[in-house]
Amino acid sequence: MKTKPVRTVDPLTLTVLEDRCTPALFPTIFVNEHVDVRLDYANSTWNEQYRNVADGTVSTTEGSLTYVPPSAMIPAPTGSTFSFLGTGPSGSIYLLPQSKNTTLPFLGISGEGVTAGTFAPYRPTDTRVTASAAYLRMDVVGVRGPGRFSLYQVNAAGTPIVWVSTTDGISSKDLAYVAVGKDEHYNWAFTDRGIYEIDIQTTAFVGSNQTSPTVSGIKTLYFSVDPAAPVNSVPPTGVNSNSGAAVVFSSRSNPISVSGPTTAPAPVSVTISSGVGKGLLSTGTTANVGIISGNGSPSVNVIGTIAQVNLALNGLTYRPAAGFNGVDAITILTSDNGEYKPAPLNEQTDSDSIGVVVSGNTATGGGAVVPPAVVPPAFPAGSSQALARRLAVSAPSGVASSVTVADTETRASLSTFSPYGSFTGGASVAVADITGDGVADIVTAAGPGGGPHVIVFDGATFRPIRSFFAYDPGFRGGVSLALADVNGDGTPDIVTGAGAGGGPHVKVFDGATGTVIRSFFAFESTFTGGVSVAAGDLTGDGVADLVAGAGAGGGPAVAVFNGRNLSEVRRFFAYAPTFTGGVNVAVGDVTGTFESEIIVGAGPGGGPHVQVFNGLTLNAVSSFFAVPLTPEENRGVFVAVADFNRDRKPEIVAVTQSPKSTEAARIRTFDLTIGLVTRPIGSDLSLTEEFFGAVNVGGIAR
What we know:
Blueprint: E1 28-30, E2 34-42, E3 45-52, E4 58-60, E5 64-68, E6 73-75, E7 92-96, E8 106-110, E9 135-144, E10 149-154, E11 160-165, E12 175-179, E13 183-185, E14 187-190, E15 194-207, E16 211-215, E17 219-225, E18 231-233, E19 239-242, E20 247-249, E21 257-259, E22 268-274, E23 280-282, E24 291-293, E25 299-304, H1 306-313, E26 316-319, E27 326-335, E28 349-359, H2 384-387, E29 390-394, E30 403-407, E31 413-417, E32 427-432, E33 441-446, E34 453-457, E35 464-469, E36 479-484, E37 493-498, E38 505-509, E39 516-521, E40 531-536, E41 545-550, E42 557-561, E43 568-573, E44 583-588, E45 597-602, E46 609-614, E47 620-625, E48 637-642, E49 651-656, E50 666-671, E51 677-680, E52 696-699
Parallel strand pairs: 1-5, 2-8, 5-17, 19-28
Antiparallel strand pairs: 2-3, 3-4, 6-7, 7-14, 8-13, 9-12, 9-15, 10-11, 10-14, 15-16, 15-17, 18-21, 20-26, 22-25, 22-27, 23-26, 24-25, 27-28, 29-30, 29-52, 30-31, 32-33, 33-34, 34-35, 36-37, 37-38, 38-39, 40-41, 41-42, 42-43, 44-45, 45-46, 46-47, 48-49, 49-50, 50-51
């Protein structure tokens, strides 16, 4: 089959995703409404948005999700003219039709929000268009999803007019036209269940003969197509407990497991309970399996991802209660908590029972065994838990550059090295496993006064393994750093932000190859205060998004950009708009809610003020001062995240400089999962007297 030339607007175009759903991100869900995608233009600004035709309400594209239910599945039309559709595994497609069906979303494309005379009429050379009009052209520039997507109309003769089809890729022919003041309805077809993201861009012409074009930014339309429900798998026959012996359910014998979307950001909830026998139930492991409650009792609850709950279920043990003989039943109830199928629709559950025949159980039988207290496990070197134990601290400007790598559990220093020799401008530092060997690696970037030199150090040997200049070698403003998987390949990528004098220039370098995969200005390119950077999954799509904090000289602006397509997701002021000291940023799930938060620290002049915002809603979560506020405490605060207490949830790391030049920088951690708990850790990390001034910290968020 001939393949169309694929555009390069989004390097993830046509990426095949696993089945996933993120309805918690969307305040607006379309279930059976008549809704138009409005290509609005006013005051020289494009604004693609949804409009509910019935009540006139509008909603943003990034805040809206169209739900395609199981009832939308139909047999795929036959014949060569419909071959563009492709088909799903059962020879069917999911279809939102061009004619209204009151049980399905009725989705159109509208130019009714544009004033007549704004754009010049023309007749495209596109043979699918037969008349002249002031057209708005909606290009589809990227599609991500588990299957193929098509947009088409069927004329009175039953012949399809194909506007978009990803069966042969994405090209300049994948577009649709709507005239100013009009609307059009289409068939929206999907071959497979799951989440689809469709990137659109609008073009119109102010001048005649298709001159003076005006082009919008890229917006994304989100569709949830018949999302999968969690499904339990249990032994087909009952099990026996002879002489009151414990019954173990493992992958080798009597396996129990749960299947479903494996990349859903929200966890499933699995409750395992004993019936009349009131036997004691214990999970196979408590390490890295989410949240477990009731372990060693007749009812255990596990909350975690599909992979986490299956880890807990592998080795599940049932011990009959003392003296019980007869038939007991173990019930497995799994719920997606309404997260796989979007609100306001109900949660999806699956319930199964396993019969247990208990015989020969004495009065002091298996139920008399008291499960041992759960002790946090020791983390073997190279394990994912061991990764969370590393913290890197760099010396400030004014002394020779050095980086101390410490173990957050033992507080012991693992290594101290000088990435830039005798250079005294300090360094940014970040920590993540880039090499994939299970050991956290260290990445540094030279501070102000040095070139924009980035070095990757192997975490096992502390030897440099990669070195490059993030910006022009002549730039001397310093570089901020973050590490996170932006392109979804499983390897953390290197995110850089130019310091003062370099403009708010953010770049992302592929962690595996070192090539540039993202490059943009987070704020106005004329702003010279620089930018601090952080990264983490704030949109729930499984890859890291990019967070930028304005440097000194601008307002305390924080902007969030979608890691896939760099569309701006959110922008807000972290402090009073009049504050011009700059903002430091970090990202991590510091509340233990399975959702990432944005952590900000005020720059110089703002005091040691730390604030935490919900990454989805921007609601304030916490606001505190890293040290008691005094008139002298005005040098700002640097923020990072790292797991210090082995609970697999990161704490906030706050670094403040004492107003007394004879005192070292102070490093404290704050745990928001159990209330605002703080402890100083500077002396525990064996920081010496040379660490005067504002230090830089990098840690791993779990």
